[in-house]
Amino acid sequence: QVTMVESGGGLVQTGGSLRLSCAVSEDRIIARMPAVGWYRQASGKQRELVASITSGKITNYANSVKGRFTISTDNDKNTMYLQMNSLKPEDTGLYYCNLVDWRSVAYWGQGTQVTVSS
């Protein structure tokens, strides 16, 4: 099984930046996954897609984060990233990294908390 561990969350002020990292247990597997992405879940709300890469090339972003967040991967380092700039209180939530294999089986990390103060 694939194991992922998120890190990089924390408490920041409005307008600040954070870079989230997700370490993947299997060597050089990220590039083989049909889809990788980041999700977040705010308290009392459903988990939502923040950003993803499909077919290894196509990036997708939620409208609420377009122009502020950037998803990237480093297959050699077995790590995926989410660069978050111009953070807003609405970005507060538990952020999860996600991989989807060719059988459409999803793998999730444990989450890292991001809190943006006003």
Give an overview in words.
This protein is an all-beta fold. It has no helices and 11 strands. Strands 2, 4, 5, 6, 9, 10 and 11 form a 7-stranded mixed sheet that branches. A hairpin with a 5-residue loop joins strand 9 and strand 10. The chain is globular, with a radius of gyration of 13 Å. The N and C termini lie far apart (40 Å). The mean pLDDT is 96.
Q: Could you write a compact summary of the structure shown?
A:
This protein has 118 residues and is mostly beta strands. It is 0% helix and 53% strand. It has strands spanning 4-7, 10-13, 18-24, 35-41, 48-54, 58-61, 69-74, 79-84, 93-100, 106-108, 112-117.
Main beta sheet strand tally, sense and closure: 7 strands, mixed
Number of strands: 11
Instruction: Assess the beta-strand content as a share of residues.
Output: over 45%
State mean pLDDT (0 to 100 scale): 96
- Helical proportion, percent range: under 10%
- Which regions are unreliable across 5 or more consecutive residues at pLDDT < 50? none
What's the arrangement of secondary structure elements?
Layout (H helix, E strand, L loop, with lengths): L3 E4 L2 E4 L4 E7 L10 E7 L6 E7 L3 E4 L7 E6 L4 E6 L8 E8 L5 E3 L3 E6 L1
Parallel strand pairs: 2-11
Antiparallel strand pairs: 1-3, 3-8, 4-5, 4-9, 5-6, 7-8, 9-10, 9-11
